[in-house]
């Protein structure tokens, strides 16, 4: 056929195994699509390869891409990749004809076979992971010393080992990388692995080691049982890191490395959230100021200015016009009434729920007055700061499943009501696009590794007592694809099972559609003694002798809390394995008693764990128990129907999970519930903001409090994230610093530039 007359030349070599096609020129789209669907090998020489949709090519096809447009310094000779199950080889030929003369059919046939084998390996192979060796010392050094003693693999090496392609990661330094969401499209046909949640009993203020158990478990699964596994952890806030609790990278010989990078800025996600949150806060108060000081016409002229003689609406302004029912696109065509409707949001300052945030514990920002400078023309109001990880934008990041979904969620965030009682959103303020720009990199999960060289995603970091307390849906979904059908993804929920686990099931699993296979419930002898009537535990104060000497009675009495947390997990139909995080002061009798009582309470198994002192080897028995429980299958179910009234959902959680007799709503809480119901938000799940130190609202009530009334002091709505947010008792969303914060011990060696004092 004549190429110059834009006809198609099809060279079809048929054997018993393959069909081979070379397509030149510009056929009709329909004809070309049909021909491509029949091919096993396609040689692409088009100067505009983007005009050929991937949907025209069958999965399993080998594409020899000779397109100069795709070569342009982006692909080396014979670089290979996979797109939607299609094996693509980039070859620097100047034409498809040159490619055919250079590659006779037999080598091409071999290339197809190799390509199909490579695709199968990418989707189903057990990782060829080079695990790092541990040399545990006794006594166990500090977390920072252990972290520094291990040399992590280069992150690009780790990425390749777990099946990531070179163009699917963005490297940050030597040991961190962001993973692009395009991976989900490439692996969309890959079966998910098993999904395991790590939760805990009601903790002491010191924490009971859920992150340590999570890391120890994946080290055991991957490095010692040769099972693909991924840990998914939250990014820690710098508030606790410099406050009282310290870092959250795990501990001992079960931690994420480098721990100082993990615990400090990581890749800047929390800073991006802070910037986006405070941009929106600034937009709210500024809009009120300008509406209070300008006429409709002046306000409209500034919102829709004439630039070089041209006046037009931005895309987000066109969306607002559509929402208002104004079907016009010419700014000069609006009537005076329409100009007023468009230009004025009429925000009621008393209804503003959006607060500024900071990633530092600062009690003096819990209540402030803003707008006191004369330039603000007398507009002032009471406001507050929250800790950055309590921002709704953090919750949006943790619950979104794509960039498109994140943008929609950011636009839906309700910041206040107008004077007619209708919700005002970020979209109404015109800031959605700017927020998305600030968050475009934060949405990509961060890849790191454990001490034994196994992979970890660190992404999102909402607190569990004042937010929903779980790492991101996206990290979990990507990890589940990477581990493959026989692998495991282990994710962690904050604080006790009554808080983080309940929200994981009722909020995160609803948003993601993922079904958990098992729950690991972390307990310590120390915490059980506290619940059994032991003296109070205070961070920074040495433990009393009751905690360092054997006391069987205290342990037995405290197991009431363990039993209650097992029962809470069973409400959701998921098998429970108790992981007893063993401390050096625990005795064999105490350990055996806890495991026995846990099994009697209905746990699938109960296993003592020693990962803190010896690494993954110390959690092999836990790993085996988790594997057996996950293979048993779960009968997962939600605790409540979201269509129930808000009050009934709150009552269900209070009674079934916390053990309360009933709830008591303050007038303000009832008013907010009525408003949110009237605005159409009554069918959202509930995210309780409650102390993590007790099953009740009173931190000093240990064990299993009974017959109490749970007070609901306020209710907020996180519409973008997708939940209603009741505050229990006097819950604060901005922590404070203790008398002696952790920062006293944190320093920098100015010679070596090494951080000291983190734990």
Automatic annotation (TrEMBL):
It comes from the Eukaryota. The lineage of its organism: Eukaryota, Metazoa, Chordata, Craniata, Vertebrata. GO terms for cellular component: mitochondrial matrix. Its EC number is 6.3.4.3. Homodimer. Pathway: One-carbon metabolism; tetrahydrofolate interconversion. Transmembrane segments: none annotated. This is formate--tetrahydrofolate ligase. One of its GO terms (biological process) is embryonic viscerocranium morphogenesis. In the N-terminal section; belongs to the tetrahydrofolate dehydrogenase/cyclohydrolase family. In the C-terminal section; belongs to the formate--tetrahydrofolate ligase family. GO terms for molecular function: ATP binding; formate-tetrahydrofolate ligase activity; protein homodimerization activity.
